[in-house]
Structure formats: C-alpha cells, structure tokens
Write a structure and sequence with these properties.
By secondary structure, the chain is mostly helical. It contains six helices and no strands.
Amino acid sequence: MTGTSGEDGRAIRRDTERVVNEVAQQLRTLDDGTAWFTALPPAGRAAVLQEVAGYAMQAHITTADGHGGVARSGVKPTANPSVMICMDPPRYGFAALPSDEHVKAFRVLVPVFSVADARRRQTYGKGTCRHAWHNLVPAAEGPQRQE
C-alpha cells in the first residue's frame, strides 16, 4: 500500500503534533522523536515531513532559525535538507526528497521548528498562547503519554 487511509492519516497527524511538540519543548529528545519517525512506514514518513514542514511555515522560520536548527540537528550543513531550510526563502519539498534523506529531513525540520516556535512565543504570545500543543507538561507533572 502506498498511501494511508483517512483514519491512519488522522492518527499520524495527531501523533506528529504530539511528538514534534514534545521534542520542540524538550520533553522528548530528538533521538526519541527520530526513533518514532523511523518506525513509520514510508508513506507515513512522507506525511509527517509534509506536516512538520507546515508547522515550520506557520512559525515563519527565518534564515537564522534554519541555521540554529541545523546546528542542533546533528545533520551536516551541506546535506540537502539543511541547505533547503537555510535558503531565503526556505524550500519545503522535504517529502519529495529521496526516501534515504527522510530521516535527515526530519532531524533538520524539528529543531528548526523548535527554534522558530520558541522565538515566536517569546515575541508574540508570551504567556498568552492557549494552543494545547504549546502548553505541554512534563510526564511527571501530567498524564502519562501513550505510545
């Protein structure tokens, strides 16, 4: 099967939102997020890359965010995903990259989103954002997350 069903797609989007924001807020490591990502089927990985690229677009990433995220990613600055995200304006066609570059793309996109999201929350929504994904609590303080 090359695609995902409607329910599978919704589940991947919910999981993506949770995992990416947990990594962005340092409630989960990038390595843990990458392990989750690599366990997905190829179509799921492509869907996640599209979703996370959308998060980055909504965060209005800057070139500085791109460079800061790449520095945190563990991916070489010369790798395709690193170069794409640091362009001005950034390129977002990560799901169209060859599948052997999808893990690198995930490892780049999530930290870049994290940098941009933190910058925007400090600038625009300091203490006022009510989006559930911006207000996650560590597992010790709240309900246990389900895998």
